[in-house]
């Protein structure tokens, strides 16, 4: 029964819990047992508190027994990316700079998870301060892809995606600044959603790039992601960028799309997000998905977004610039790590230099240096200012495209999961993993990655669907239809994942 519970979807677990066929404690214990069994190999989690998880689950069981009206997902456990602040639980953002920090408050989305009764299994591993595409830049060691333990699980949210693929959690939370939810989903055979910017509160996220960061749901099915999105979304007055719209209708859209019928939906294939540089099997799987969309009744046309070709360059100026500003607070003075110089006078400048030199990893230092340079006097207009102009052009390309179509589609990532260490010494090669996902963050539009096949080595591939801002429901309808046709033609892809042993 325990193994079956860890392989059951969140929606089905919710149904079992509501009828009393299983208890929240049983479900939580099954997942804790699975974590104990395989996470020594996978390293998806940085922190697990089994006693606290079971206490949360027991509270749900007690409330259900007392006849309390509970949320649909009450009792379904969840894993949370370690960039999300959690009261009483360590939050490190994958960095030694915050090692041992226990926040005194919850992020808004964590408050919503607790209110809905989702027991938290633990905090998941990530690239340090969400800077990376492979989770190799974590200050606590890399996470491994459950499909092949010699390969990366994507990044920066590789821990949240790997926990799903290893059946350690039915749901997880990620954050997406340039693809950090969608790219890990693609390479682990799971589902990841970057909501419309501002539709899920950023209050309580350790900031990387404030104009790009967005928390979102991660799951193994489109419906599960939609159900979780409805829990964490909605307006938050503590976030000045929060949108006023409620997070509703996503699960209904997923259920509608699950029929596989997309009659009347206009789909645009982005010319600039395909072709050279994409792995052969990725291109073939994408072409197959486009044919299946047409067979489902969608009208498919090619759309050109010429400014997308400059998105990567613009992103890697805007993100480092904002990171340089956001990470300035980690100075050894107020909270987190403090390192005093080994010799000589103890001044503020020398403490700051020692702390940041020891506390930050190489990738974080690289981006801070890039960002500080881009913002410096004499270079601001040439670099950061020009990148913001490109951002405006990308937003205009999206607007023009959505006048022609309802959604856009592309491969999620140009390749499947590469070997650990393969690109670690080549930053440009690593950055290219986000070439298809970055435009959505620059424009603030929502996107979803759905599994759509396996490559010749048996590794998962993902297809990306993008929608206009505040039209996240379209992601779930089209994503669920893709999921339906993939299962009809290829079966359950996750059923082919190799069993992970300790």
TrEMBL record:
Broad enzyme group: ligase
InterPro entries: Amidase (IPR000120), Amidase_CS (IPR020556), Amidase_dom (IPR023631), AS_sf (IPR036928), GatA (IPR004412)
EC number in record: 6.3.5.7
SUPFAM superfamilies: Amidase signature (AS) enzymes (SSF75304)
Active site, renumbered: 81 (charge relay system), 156 (charge relay system), 180 (acyl-ester intermediate)
Domain Amidase residues, every copy: 26-475
Any one Gene Ontology BP term: translation
Pfam families reported for this sequence: Amidase (PF01425)
GO molecular function, one term: glutaminyl-tRNA synthase (glutamine-hydrolyzing) activity
GO cellular component: glutamyl-tRNA(Gln) amidotransferase complex
Superkingdom of the organism of origin: Bacteria
Region span, Disordered: 134-154
Keyword entries, A-Z: ATP-binding, Ligase, Nucleotide-binding, Protein biosynthesis
Function: Allows the formation of correctly charged Gln-tRNA(Gln) through the transamidation of misacylated Glu-tRNA(Gln) in organisms which lack glutaminyl-tRNA synthetase. The reaction takes place in the presence of glutamine and ATP through an activated gamma-phospho-Glu-tRNA(Gln).
Family that this chain belongs to: Belongs to the amidase family. GatA subfamily.
PANTHER family recorded: GLUTAMYL-TRNA(GLN) AMIDOTRANSFERASE SUBUNIT A, TRANSAMIDASE
Name recorded for this polypeptide: Glutamyl-tRNA(Gln) amidotransferase subunit A
Organism encoding this protein: Litorihabitans aurantiacus
